[in-house]
Amino acid sequence: MNKKILVAYFSHSGNTREIAIQIHKNIGSNIFEIQSVNPYPSEYNEVVEQAKQELQSGYQPELKTAVKDMKSYEAVFIGYPNWWGTIPRPVAAFLSKHDFSGKTIVPFCTHEGSRLGRSITDITRLCPQSTVLNGLAVRGREVKNAQNEVSEWLRKIGMIE
Ligand SMILES: Cc1cc2nc3c(=O)[nH]c(=O)nc-3n(C[C@H](O)[C@H](O)[C@H](O)COP(=O)(O)O)c2cc1C
């Protein structure tokens, strides 16, 4: 695999991180965690309410760090939990703050039933000059057993042989 690939992910409770690590191990890519400066509350109802408000207002939280050499990547995996049917706002901020034009974006998400929801449409809207591939959706409670599903998907989209 000659392409330079980045796996960027946001994870609140660890499920998406698990899939991000599996992808990173399969393809030997670099890995980057998207983190907001102000962490989200750990209490479920609180984060659900905060995420709802942020989505409604279109809020883009400040991120801890940026990817320094984004230019050098041809393909970027973007991982996230499905929050209210779409990408969490830190992921929207990440997509807005970097230049993805000409790159391939490979979405993957974890969820509790809504799969990718409308996240692909929303990613495409934020990155109109990128090629957005079909994403992988894994149920949050199944991430530990998803190795085969992940590697089959990577093979199908041509990321591994
Ligand atoms: C704020 C919030 C909103 C959520 N909204 C949805 C949703 O709309 N549909 C769904 O299937 N799961 C939803 N979930 C469940 C998460 O997508 C799921 O638990 C995911 O695996 C969490 O990933 P993480 O551990 O990487 O944070 C939501 C969870 C949170 C905290």
Automatic annotation (TrEMBL):
| Matching Pfam families | Flavodoxin_4
The organism's place on the tree of life at top rank: Archaea
Q: Identify the residues that the record assigns to the Flavodoxin-like domain, covering every copy.
A: 5-158
* Single GO MF annotation: FMN binding
Name its species. Answer: Methanosarcina horonobensis HB-1 = JCM 15518
Name used for this protein in its record: Flavodoxin
